[in-house]
Design a protein that fits this description.
3 helices; globular; four-stranded mixed β-sheet; 200 residues; alpha/beta
Length: 200
């Protein structure tokens, strides 16, 4: 069995109204409409989940699915301003998920998908500015993307600019707040493909 595993920040977009949270959750309809390989599994990562626990949950989910075709991470980017010759550019230094971000440093703990993926498998970062390139060093989204590709062992697709998403099916949450379905695609701007190097 192959398919698509979509991991997402269950608290996205991490916003609230007076009576409760605003939750925008991805759904399988978007995957189906855009031709992603079936079957689909959505893995919510709760806000209090530690990196150790959410990396394990990702690995366990991938193992249960068998040979993955697509592995998607959906969440906000931790955006900072990085210097470039013309001024500055927004880049992502981490992905907001669980209790602590996925960063270039802890990304090495992502599950190794080399033996859990079909030929031509791909990961996608549904994250703003993930592949934006700053001057150098930690303030460059390319470092984050490459770290993720190296850890997963499969190629990673990410965008260089802020991504727009829409919501549909808004409904009240029992006890307060609002729940909607998030629609991420299509991609905004240019996407970049990162291929894995030697795992460190």
């Amino acid at each position: 069995m192959a398919g698509t595993l979509l991991v997402y920040d269950a608290a996205f977009p991490r916003a609230r109204v007076a009576d409760g949270p605003i939750l925008n959750t991805p759904g399988t309809a978007e995957l189906r409409a855009n031709g992603y390989p079936e079957p689909y599994q959505l893995l919510p990562i709760r806000e209090a989940t530690s990196p150790e626990d959410y990396f394990k949950a990702m690995g366990d989910a991938a193992t249960k699915m068998g040979k993955l075709d697509r592995f998607i991470i959906f969440g906000h980017g931790r955006v900072v301003n990085a210097a470039v010759p013309a001024g500055y550019v927004q880049v992502t230094t981490g992905i907001v998920i669980g209790a602590s971000d996925i960063t270039p440093i802890n990304a090495r703990n992502l599950p190794d998908l080399r033996r859990k993926s079909s030929s031509g498998a791909q990961a996608e970062l549904w994250v703003c500015d993930a592949a934006a390139a700053g001057g150098s060093g930690e303030y460059s989204g390319t470092r984050l993307c490459q770290s993720i590709a190296d850890a997963l062992g499969i190629q990673v697709l990410a965008a260089t600019i802020t991504q727009q998403y829409s919501t549909e099916d808004q409904r009240p949450i029992e006890g307060g707040g609002w729940q909607s379905t998030a629609v991420f695609l299509p991609w905004e701007g240019t996407t970049v493909l990162f291929r894995p190097g030697r795992r460190t």
